Amino acid sequence: MTDTRLQDTNPAEASEKAITLIESLPWLRRFRDQVIVIKYGGNAMVSDELQDAFAADIAYLRYVGVKPVVVHGGGPQISDMLDRLAIPSEFKGGYRVTSTEAISVVRMVLTGQINPQLVAKINAHGPLATGLSGEDAGMFTGRRRGVMVDGIEHDLGRVGDVVAVDPQTVLDHLAAGRIPVVSSIAPDLDHPGHSLNVNADAAAAALAVALKATKLVVLTDVPGLYADWPNRDSLVSHLTATELRAMLPHLESGMIPKMQACLDAVEGGVETAAIIDGRVPHSVLVEIFTQNGIGTEVVAQ
Prior knowledge:
Layout: H1 4-7, H2 11-23, H3 25-31, E1 35-40, H4 48-63, E2 67-72, H5 75-84, E3 90-92, E4 95-97, H6 100-123, E5 129-133, E6 140-149, E7 152-165, H7 168-175, E8 179-183, E9 185-187, E10 195-198, H8 200-210, E11 215-220, E12 225-226, E13 235-236, E14 238-240, H9 241-247, H10 256-267, E15 272-277, H11 283-289, E16 296-299
Parallel strand pairs: 1-2, 1-11, 2-8, 5-8, 7-10, 11-15, 14-16
Antiparallel strand pairs: 3-4, 6-7, 9-10, 12-13, 15-16
């Protein structure tokens, strides 16, 4: 029987692939057995190709010995469902105003639609992922919050901050070799039986701190943080928590929750936090396993 495998191999291409694999060796060594929390959301969710690429990235992390934990939002899908149901949708200071009517839709989309869909895509690579909600086993505890816009406090309705995290459920799944996939819904501490829409960036940061994660990665729909938006030449590849804290009040409103999450993570003990462009296929692997990464990295100092 003829061995066509060698005949079809281009030596130059094979060598290039080997070099790429070897380049990842220091990062494989660094992150093996370490927890990395990845916040998944935005435009990376609305393309089937990008969903498949993300799922493959997460499965790859697990197979090479990393312990990935995914926290997801679902802004585009929530907006689409609210529009279909003719429920008004409004944003203030980068946060979605969530009425009592809207919270049922948010909960349904996040926990009932996006979560099992993402779990299924990851599990196409093996029986690895398990779906969770911030409401499961008291993982998240939430408290309602407002937002300051131009010095004025605005009510956000059924929107909250994560004020406490019990990571035990996630730790149990990690110990069993599973990939926890967590939707960003939290029970309302002050109103038992009620749910809160929790910003997924903030939820991912809080969970990363509670898990003592090595890295937080936040997927977004821009290449990274711009020091002088919309100047495309002002992309920042690396900054400290002190530098970020000084920039935060001057950022575009939609970027503030993401960069605040990075700041909260590194100030809470996570070694590094990064925002990356989720529109780039396999951006998670590029960020974690290459020297320069792909987005903006934040470190404590």
